[in-house]
Amino acid sequence: MLYFHIPFCAQKCSYCNFHFSTSLQQMEPMVQGLISELEQRRDELENPHIETLYFGGGTPSLLSSKDLGRIVDAVEKQYVLDSHLEFTLEANPDDLSAGYLRELKEIGVNRLSVGTQSFFEKDLRLMNRAHSASQAEDSIKRAQDMGITNISLDLIYGSPGTELGEWRKNLEKAVALGVVHISSYAMTVEPRTALHHWVETGKVPAPEEKVQAQAFDYVHEYLSSQGFEHYEISNFALPGKRSRHNAAYWGSRPYLGIGPSAHSFDGGRKRSWNIANNALYLKHLHEPAVRMESEILSDSERYNERIMVGLRTLEGVDVRTLAPLLNESMEAHFKRESEKKLQQGLLVAKGHFLSVPVAHWFLSDGIASDLFYLET
Ligand code: SF4
């Protein structure tokens, strides 16, 4: 699995605290930098066979097709791309012109994750999105006409002032457009964002948890009735259309992340990540010890991670993958806490898997944290 972080955006969305810059002058050195980092880290993936390639951000669709093609050429020089490669590009609707889509297809992009967020203009303006509702709709139709049919939409529920009825209409629109995957996220107020400032100063009301819980129940009910599988707390797919890239993250498989702020994992204990600053990333490109940080996960950290990630999925956590991590005290803790949750109906056991029933998914982070083992 290979991930590239493209740390640029056309403008800053009011709710976003991801790492990106709105100054596009650094695009050319960044593209060279990404290729250089890829070459430096050639040997970090033991298996040179790439099944999923993912460009995330930021806004990867700000990359010209020429630059995207240069990066893909560099990938092909050092790895073998699977014949069923899942090649995803996160895109903003305003970037998806017919010409650009044609070029993306020629390069091999076969899955688009379109940052739509809402089909209501008032929501898009509050979010300070760079596109309009009609651009979102048109871009999806254009991509489908071009033959890119594996399309995921991002939608946000529970924005300040958004009614449940509007959320319903957003979902109906997404389904009517024929997308095969939907990621739906609750609006959260992150520190150091414009939305945070507006909420703090009373300019807009804070998102309401009760409304978000209703929206969550509705998205589950409605998309399930439309044939979508709710396979992870925030993700829905038609049969066979789950994101293979994300499933690999959740399955603790090794991945290499290239670019500022990108994380990597060796599939065992080591996690590493690049500095979240474009200028410093480029300055220290050839000094990995300065550019990157890493950590070696303890058994309890690996256990906690598996619990947290696993309980957010439909299948749940595979208890067999926990067993090798548990010492006597952790095992006693796990048995005691999981037994309690089973009795309360907050967990169910099926074969080797423990999962949170969908009716309680909205609480799954809290359920997972009760199972965490904290070293004393
Ligand atoms: S386009 Fe995406 S990454 Fe960029 S500011 Fe908006 S939400 Fe954040």
TrEMBL record:
Keywords: 4Fe-4S, Chaperone, Cytoplasm, Heme, Iron, Iron-sulfur, Metal-binding, S-adenosyl-L-methionine. Residues 1-229 form the Radical SAM core domain. It comes from the Bacteria. It is found in: Cytoplasm. InterPro entries: Coproporphyrinogen-III_oxidase (IPR034505), Elp3/MiaA/NifB-like_rSAM (IPR006638), HemN_C (IPR010723), HemW-like (IPR004559), rSAM (IPR007197), rSAM_horseshoe (IPR023404), rSAM_sf (IPR058240). One of its GO terms (biological process) is porphyrin-containing compound biosynthetic process. CDD domains: Radical_SAM (cd01335). PROSITE patterns: RADICAL_SAM. GO terms for cellular component: cytoplasm. GO terms for molecular function: 4 iron, 4 sulfur cluster binding; coproporphyrinogen oxidase activity; metal ion binding. PANTHER family: COPROPORPHYRINIGEN III OXIDASE (PTHR13932), RADICAL S-ADENOSYL METHIONINE DOMAIN-CONTAINING PROTEIN 1, MITOCHONDRIAL (PTHR13932:SF5). Belongs to the anaerobic coproporphyrinogen-III oxidase family. HemW subfamily. Probably acts as a heme chaperone, transferring heme to an unknown acceptor. Binds one molecule of heme per monomer, possibly covalently. Binds 1 [4Fe-4S] cluster. The cluster is coordinated with 3 cysteines and an exchangeable S-adenosyl-L-methionine. This is Heme chaperone HemW. The gene is hemW.
